[in-house]
Amino acid sequence: MNDSQHHRLGKIVQPRLKRETAFHRPLLHSNITPGISRDPLSGKERKLRKGPWIVGGLAIYSFTAYGSYLYSSLARAEGEYKSPEDCKDVSYRYNETAKNFDNEVGLTEKLMGIGWLRQSLTKRAFGDVLEVSAGTGRNVQYYDLGKCKSITMVDQSEEMLKIAKKKFRETHPKYDTSRFLIQSVQDPIPSSRPPVFDTVIQTMGICSIRNPSAVLAHLGSITKPSTGQILLLEHGRSYYGWLNRILDKTAAAHADKHGCWWNRDIGKIIEDSGLEPVKIRRYHLGTTWWVELKPRA
Fold first, then answer.
1. Which of 40, 119, 213, 258 could tie 272 with a disulfide, CB 3.0–4.6 Å?
2. 131 has which bridge partners?
3. Rounded to two decimals, what is the model's pTM?
4. Could you list the pLDDT tens digit for every one of the 297 residues in the chain?
């Protein structure tokens, strides 16, 4: 066979060998099905890459929602300035808003992550627990009842507390050491002995009560001095002057509709209460306050 014949055979045979090699090698040495492309990223890697985009998107959405809410409140405001010291008692509004309260605040709280903060705070409760300004029981589902010897819920709004009691009975039907009291927290709590609690919790309550510093001081007096804790999740003044001016301008209209003065100085209220701060965290431009307190020794 001469060189010319070898050359022609090479042209005929070699392409067929390449096709066979290209087809069979993945079947012999890989679990990949031919014709299906493989994503070089694992599921965990894809989640990690998507994570920042999801978090960023939610943050922008929440900030936009919060900003839109402030803007709409500003548009409704009459322009009358109300300082925190001028805030009258508007707690009576909650009997009127109880029926639709959860629907009105639910979406905003979800977008701003308030539900997660409620859950994280409420799960810290232990022992004999007093929840002040219990409202419609938006914390009910988050209690770790295995750590709670008893739970007493107090609110001045009869209509709100009815809803809270119903939620509690439905969520924890076998828990039989709970009480629901329609009264001011500053009124004596019915008990066979002086009430001293391991945990006192209040979420979004300072905004609607009269003399909040005095209320906190009273809560300190009925909390165990050595091991007790007072847990607060509140909203009030911001880090920023421009936002505080908006809160001040819209405070009266907001309180009239929702029964809440959202421009109170939470830091000053805590300072005036005489309680000892253990931990304070702030969210949402400083307007949301996570507060852990204890009675001073």
1. 213
2. 153, 201
3. 0.74
4. 555 544 444 444 444 444 444 434 443 344 444 444 445 555 555 555 665 666 556 556 555 555 555 544 454 444 444 444 455 566 667 888 899 999 989 998 999 999 999 999 999 999 999 999 999 999 999 999 999 999 999 999 999 999 999 999 999 999 999 999 999 888 888 876 778 999 999 999 999 888 999 999 999 999 999 899 999 999 999 999 999 999 999 998 888 887 889 999 999 999 999 999 999 999 999 999 999 999 998
